[in-house]
Each structure stands twice: as structure tokens, then as C-alpha cells.
Amino acid sequence: MSNCDPAHFSEDERAKEILRDCDYSIKINKELARSGKAPRQIRVYADGAFDLFHEGHANVLRQAKNCFPNVYLIVGVCSDATLNKMKGPTVMNDDERYNVVKHCRYVDEVLRDAPWEHNDAFIMDHKIDFFAHDDIPYISEGTEDIYGHLKKRDMFVATQRTEGVSTSDIITRMVRNYDVYARRNLARGYTSKELNISYHQQLLFKLQNIIESRQDFFRF
């Protein structure tokens, strides 16, 4: 039988063992990485929020995993505290986001509570050869692109976004069709308190569900 285990968290003993065994004194540039002749695995790091994990996220991680032959892909996932400060509230909490990334087939290791920016100490601690992210400048306080210093050092690999899908798009779709989803979940047993709607709205939605369930009777 085939066996495909989920990725390790960085603090797991197996991930620590792989890190210890990596001879980081062997420096790998892009030419050597692309040649397929690198004497060790190439450690590529990709990071993000990965909220409402979707095909766009998976596609980015696929690109990162396949940017060179023999890649060991480390994926950093930011915590709720970091994202609430830098971007705003998430839909999924950090444990949910850590675990969904852990079960993506392209990922070898997940770094929980990943930093927003990356200094030399972070690079050395995780023995990172290259960072993978889309090439759009990522503005943060005090810098026009948090990946800019990595691009200058030729440690950056550009990935492509998947057009037409993003976490913001999904949230927008949910908000636009809120009544439909609220009515569906009421029919499935959720309470007005859980859906954050008034008792009056609950009665209205239930009435709409009853009318729709009996609409055949009103056809002529």
C-alpha cells in the first residue's frame, strides 16, 4: 500500500534531524540549483496567511516545490496575532491554517507563527537557500518590499498567482450571498445566535425556506 504522510512541523524531531543533516556550508546559487546537480536538497521557503486555503494557495506551493529539482519546501504560516496586526482578522484560526497547509501534498515542513519579515538570523536558523513568492512588491512599515533585500541577493524565486481566485474573492462571494448561506445553515440546525442574526431575521429566513421548499405547489 502507498503511504503519504503529512508534512512535519518545524519543531518536530524529524524536521530538526533534516535541518541538522543539511550541510549549509555548501552554498547553492540558481545556476547550480537549476542544473539538478546540487549535492544536497535545496531548501526553499514560502510563506503566507493561507486563510480559506484554496487552489491558488496550492498552485503557489506547487510552483515553489517544483522551482528546482530536489526541493525541500518549508512553508511559513503567520499566526493570528501577526495577521490581525498587519492585515486584519482571519476567517480560519492559526491552528486550522497550520494544519490545512500541513496536509498539502507539496509541503515538506510547516513553520508555525512565521515572522512577517526575514532577517539573516532567520535565514541561517532555517538554512534557507531561496524564498518563493509572487513578484508583486509587498509593502510593509519602513520598506517598499519585504522581499526586496532577498531579490538583490538573488535568493528570490517568483511564483505566479492564480487569476480569479483569492481569499478576498471567496469572502466577497460569501458576503454577497449571505442570505442564502444563512438560510441554509438555519435549515441545518444552526441558531440565530451562532449566525449573529436577530430573531426577526431568523423567522424571515425560515419563512423563505418554507416557501422555496413548497414552490412546486405554486406553479401553474
From TrEMBL:
Top EC category: transferase
InterPro entries: CCT, Cyt_trans-like, Pcy1-like, Rossmann-like_a/b/a_fold
Pathway: Phospholipid metabolism; phosphatidylcholine biosynthesis; phosphatidylcholine from phosphocholine: step 1/2
One matching Pfam family: CTP_transf_like
UniProt cross-references to SUPFAM superfamilies, sorted A to Z: Nucleotidylyl transferase
Record keywords, A-Z: Lipid biosynthesis, Lipid metabolism, Nucleotidyltransferase, Phospholipid biosynthesis, Phospholipid metabolism, Transferase
Residue ranges occupied by any Cytidyltransferase-like domain in the UniProt entry: 45-173
CDD domains hit by this protein: CCT
Domain of life, source organism: Eukaryota
Keyword Lipid metabolism attached: yes
EC number: 2.7.7.15
The keyword Lipid metabolism is assigned to this record: yes
Assigned protein family: Belongs to the cytidylyltransferase family.
Name of protein: choline-phosphate cytidylyltransferase
Species per Swiss-Prot/TrEMBL record: Nicrophorus vespilloides
Gene name, Swiss-Prot/TrEMBL: LOC108556879
